[in-house]
Task: inverse folding
C-alpha cells in the first residue's frame, strides 16, 4: 500500500502530558503536509489548533481521558466545550468500572449523551481492550452499535497494551454496519498499519507514521 494511502487513515496524535504548543503546532503542520485524517491533541490546545489550521485539518480531541471514570455530566461538558472550541472529532473513554459491574445501561446512555453533544461531529468510543475480557469486548461492540456512535476504538495508549489484530477481528464480527473501527496504541510500523487496514480498520491512532514516511523518503525509498 502506498504510504500516502495509509496516512489518509491516521489520526496524527500527540497526547503526552508534557506536550507544548510548539510541539502541537509541529504535528499540525505535519498533518496538513501529509494529509492525515485528523490531528488528535489534548483538549486545552483545541482552540489554538483550530485557529491555527484554519480548516485545513480536522481537529480531534479526547474526553474522559485516559481513565474514563469521570461523571457523564463532566464528559458531556468536556465534549460541548471541545466542539465549541473547534473540535470536529471526539474520542471518549468509557467507564470501565461500569462495564465490570455490568451496568450496561449507564454506559449506553453515556455514549448516547455524548453523541447528542457532538451533533453531526464524529464520536469514537475507546473501550481499552487490554483491560477487558472477550465477553466484555463483544458486549461493548453491541453497546457502541446501539448507542449510535461512529467508531469503536481499541485503546488510549496509556494503559497496559494497545491494539491487536485479534481484537480488530473480534470487533469486525460483532459491530453493526454503521460502526467503524479505530486501532490505537503500539502501532509502530508501516507493516502493522497496513495489516490493520486490511482487517477493516478505518482509522489508526498513532504518532509514528509520519516519522516513518519521512525516514523512508530520506532513505530514497
Result:
Amino acid at each position: 500500500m502506498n504510504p500516502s494511502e495509509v496516512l489518509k487513515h491516521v489520526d496524527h496524535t500527540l497526547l503526552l502530558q508534557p506536550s507544548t504548543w510548539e510541539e502541537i503546532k509541529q504535528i499540525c503542520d505535519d498533518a496538513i503536509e501529509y494529509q492525515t485524517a485528523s490531528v488528535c491533541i489534548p483538549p486545552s490546545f483545541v482552540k489554538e489548533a483550530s485557529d491555527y489550521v484554519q480548516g485545513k485539518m480536522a481537529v480531534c480531541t479526547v474526553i474522559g481521558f485516559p481513565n474514563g471514570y469521570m461523571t457523564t455530566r463532566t464528559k458531556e461538558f468536556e465534549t460541548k466545550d471541545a466542539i465549541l472550541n473547534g473540535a470536529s472529532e471526539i474520542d471518549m473513554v468509557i467507564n470501565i468500572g461500569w462495564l465490570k459491574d455490568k451496568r450496561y445501561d449507564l454506559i449506553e446512555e453515556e455514549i448516547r449523551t455524548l453523541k447528542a453533544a457532538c451533533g453531526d461531529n464524529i464520536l469514537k468510543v475507546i473501550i481499552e481492550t487490554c483491560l477487558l475480557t472477550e465477553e466484555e469486548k463483544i458486549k461493548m461492540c453491541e453497546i457502541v452499535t446501539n448507542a449510535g456512535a461512529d467508531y469503536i476504538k481499541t485503546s488510549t495508549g496509556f494503559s497496559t497494551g494497545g491494539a491487536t489484530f485479534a481484537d480488530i477481528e473480534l470487533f469486525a464480527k460483532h459491530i453493526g454496519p454503521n460502526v467503524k473501527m479505530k486501532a490505537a496504541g503500539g502501532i509502530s510500523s508501516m507493516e502493522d498499519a497496513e495489516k490493520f487496514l486490511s482487517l477493516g480498520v478505518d482509522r489508526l491512532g498513532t504518532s509514528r507514521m509520519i516519522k516513518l514516511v519521512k525516514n523512508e523518503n530520506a532513505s530514497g525509498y
Summary: Strands lie at 10-13, 38-41, 59-63, 89-93, 122-126, 151-153, 180-184, 203-206. The two ends are 13 Å apart (CA to CA).
